[in-house]
Amino acid sequence: MSKAEYKQFKKVGFTYDPKDPRQGISATTTNLPPHNPNKIIEFTGALGADYYVDIDVSGKKVGYKGPTKGRQPDYKIRDDVTPDDIVGSGRVSKK
Fold this sequence. Notes:
Layout: H1 3-12, E1 25-27, H2 37-44, E2 51-55, E3 62-67, E4 73-77, E5 86-91
Antiparallel strand pairs: 1-4, 2-5, 3-4
């Protein structure tokens, strides 16, 4: 996500809209550590990987979407996410 999206997400979270064709937030599992952006792009097929946000999805509506381009499991968070749900975040290491 971009720096502006990252700041906005941390500040106000995300409001789920069931009418949105994207069907929620795409997320990979926590077993993918935030490391080299090129590795993340390879694993997930993401367009960019400058920032990460770890979200506690306990009690949230989460559905399996399918594998990413890098064959990692891709999930959709189909629920509102508040700043209190964020358990970790930061800039992805360039190493």
